[in-house]
Specification:
Layout (H helix, E strand, L loop, with lengths): L5 E4 L2 H18 L3 H21 L3 E9 L3 E10 L3 H9 L11 H16 L4 H4 L24 E5 H9 L5 H13 L1 H5 L2 E7 L2 E9 L2
Antiparallel strand pairs: 1-2, 2-3, 3-6, 4-5, 5-6
Helix pairs in contact: 1-2, 2-4, 3-4
Length: 209
């Protein structure tokens, strides 16, 4: 099942509409209260990250799947001019940016860098906490739009790099702590980030059974 696509942006009213649409999809898919709450938390934290990263964004949110597994799709266009892009990049170029905190802050930083550096290797674009190696968008439930974009990061690959210690000691400890504390990192089975120009797509995958 694929839900309707609906508009989201930084406006509080649209954020509330996203919560309603999430609950509506959960009801149609036959999710119980616990899984509906999980889905709502994933959507809320993801939209919050987008708003924190880019004050002015607009896009579309939709869902695909059923009661056993589903995907949250967020396709957004960031109104980021060159000055704003440079500001996003400069605050975290050393990997020591105090403003980028936690897993979702790191994910927002990956996205902001990708907006300005599509096609670069992520070890160059994200410094010491980079995902090493190429990232290929995995097959899944209803993700045709993602293949039009440049896949730059996946949670699955990031987790593997953390588990295998493919980071400097300080970065590794910080990554482990961030993964433990993040709602998205704990609830999602995978997150795939794709970027093309100023267009971003996040696909958050969640298995319920």
């Amino acid at each position: 099942m694929v839900s309707d696509k609906f508009m989201v942006n930084s406006d509080a009213g649209r954020m509330a509409a996203a919560r309603y649409a999430t609950e509506n999809f959960a009801w149609q898919a036959g999710l119980d209260k616990r899984d509906t709450l999980r889905l709502s938390l994933l959507v809320e934290e993801t939209l919050g990250m987008m708003k924190a990263m880019v004050e002015d964004f607009y896009g579309r949110l939709w869902f695909s799947g059923d009661a056993s597994a589903c995907e949250i799709h967020l396709e957004a266009t960031a109104n980021v001019d060159s000055d704003r892009k440079q500001a996003l990049l400069s605050v975290s170029s050393t990997g020591k940016n105090a403003a980028v905190k936690g897993f979702m802050g790191m994910l927002g930083d990956v996205i902001s860098r990708a907006l300005n550096n599509v096609g670069h290797a992520m070890d160059e674009a994200y410094g010491e906490t980079a995902v090493t190696g190429s990232v290929v968008a995995p097959a899944g439930l209803g993700t045709p739009n993602l293949y039009d974009l440049t896949p730059v990061w996946t949670l699955e690959q990031y987790r593997e790099n953390v588990e295998k210690g493919r980071m400097e000691a300080d970065a590794l400890e910080r990554a482990k702590e961030d993964l433990e504390k993040s709602i998205v990192a704990n609830l999602a089975d995978d997150v795939v980030v794709g970027v093309k120009g100023d267009r971003i797509e996040l696909v958050i995958k969640k298995k319920f059974r």
